[in-house]
Amino acid sequence: MHIFTHSTHNGTFLADIDPRVKLLCSLALLLMVISGKGLLLPLVTTLLCIGICIRAGVRLRSLALRFAEPAFIILMIVLLKLFCSGHAPLFSVSLFGIELTGYREGLTEGLMIATRIIGAVSVVNALAAVTPFTELMAAFSWLRLPQAFIEVTLFAWRYLFLLHDDARVIYAAQKNRLGYTGYRTGLRSFGTLAGTLVIKAFDNSRTVTTAMLQRGYDGNLPMLKHKPFRIGEVAASLMFIVCMGILWKL
């Protein structure tokens, strides 16, 4: 359960900043990381964002899991670029009778793409570490994302916890009854688990809709109301963007 409900208010000062400011800074930083032509900005961004995540209380194991999939993608891209792009040979290896040649230009291009990916992933993780999900959705609402998308996402996030708890209860009951002792038995039990969760999700959606309509829900969520920007936060954010822009130019 703690995987989904990790608290973002862990003493870091970034947790108290207006989520709209954090979102705009993150978007600007993402654009600079993706469009940059050097290695300095992505590397500095990665170190800075990982430091923010650790300061916010994200465990190293959880952080490693978040970077596992991007790391696999990076590995594939670097290998493809290394052996399939370039003209200046760097080394050659023989694998199962196939001669593979690594190229200097391919390695450089692969590392450039790798640093951009890891930098962008770091920015997203840092934003998630210091911004509660509901505040992040409120910031997206301020950016004029469709209201229906915001509402569905918020309700899905809220009831994901209930489905997670239901799945754990059903799985524990099946396991206690030897529901996963064999391959076929495991598949049958998993199918029952998935079908039960779909039915529960449908029932929960009808129950929530009825309950909210009875309480006068008209489509307006109070959490999507915004306060005025604070001058100090805006000024500090602009200074940060300017400093990162200097690195982007280098």
Describe this structure in words.
This protein has 250 residues and is mainly α. The chain has two domains: 13-131 and 228-249, no CATH class; 147-219. The protein is built from eight helices and two strands, in the order αααββααααα. The protein has helices spanning 19-35, 40-55, 60-84, 104-130, 133-142, 147-176, 183-214, 231-249; strands at 89-95, 98-103. The radius of gyration is 24 Å and the shape is flat. The relative contact order is 0.13.
**Arithmetic mean of pLDDT:** 86
Number of strands: 2
Low-confidence sequence ranges? 1-9
Structural class: mainly alpha
State the end-to-end distance. Answer: 44 Å
Helical segment tally? 8
Gyration radius, rounded: 24 Å
Strand order of the largest sheet: 1-2
Main beta sheet strand tally, sense and closure: 2 strands, antiparallel
Task: Please bin the fraction of helical residues.
Answer: over 70%
Tell me what portion of residues adopts beta-strand conformation.
5-15%
Shape: flat
What is the N-to-C order of secondary-structure elements (H for helix, E for strand)?
A: HHHEEHHHHH
Number of domains: 2
What attributes does this structure have?
250 residues, mainly alpha, two-stranded antiparallel sheet, 2 strands
